[in-house]
Amino acid sequence: MSYGFYSIYKKLRKHFGFQNWWPAKTKFEIVVGAILTQQTSWKNVEKAIENLRKSGLLNENKLRKASIKEIEKAIKNVNFYKTKAKRLKEIVKNLNRIRKEKEERRIKESLLKLDGIGYETAEALMLYYFGFLDFVIDAYTIRIFERIFERKFKRNELKKLIEEEIPKDLELYKDFHAQLVELGKRYCKKEPKCEECPLRKICKFGKNKTL
Question: pLDDT tens digits, residue range 198-209?
Answer without folding.
Answer: 999 999 998 887
